[in-house]
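re: that chain from earlier
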Amino acid sequence: MAEQGSGRLKGRRIVVTGAARGMGLATAEIFAAEGAKLALCDRDEQAVRANADRLGQFGAGCDVADEADVARFCEQAEQAMGGVDGLINAAGILIMKPMLETSLAEWQRVLDVNLTGTMLMCKTLAPAMQRAGGGTMVNIASIGGLRPGPGSGAYSVSKAGVIMLSNSLASELGPEIRVNTVCPGTIPTDMVTDLLASSRERLTETPALKRLGRAEDVVKAMLFLTSDDSSYVTGDTLTVDGGWAYR
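^ sequence. v structure.
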């Protein structure tokens, strides 16, 4: 459980996707400590409901790549919280394969979850935020969307798309809704377990700060972009990678 926060999100009603584990769960814990009311979703319905119950929040199963599922969940979230004025798109998958070895089904699934899923959540919740008088969206991309690494072609393409999606939405939805992107470096979560098993030493030495990131490093950047501290920031891409992308 996250330590008690300063209440920077008191009164905010925020949807967090991919909240069964990893970055989504870390976001839920820290945002709850900061006073936010949350609606959490994940394909793993049992895990996300357990997390929501522990945090005293609303949780439900949802496949972000399924338009009907997204519509159902977003309606439930708005009703449960009495409105929506924030969104964190943390749901994502990683398939580590060279492009020429990636099947069409694998390619499609990565884009469906990482890019189309992000778009569906933003598109579906934008009207709810407009009804609430405004809001914020923060989409998690990756340093892979800025500078591709070996064997992550589909993932890198999907995350580059997330960056452009955020920028496009920022221009369309302002001034009521601010939209920004966070690009994490290598963060030890379930999604990168296999990568860390084979490359931990190299990944630790490559960044300028000489360490792997922590989930809280990324969540605190999203906290800034969600809170009033960033009230004049939209269409921005904030890299949280310890100085990896520019070395």
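The chain has a mean pLDDT of 90.
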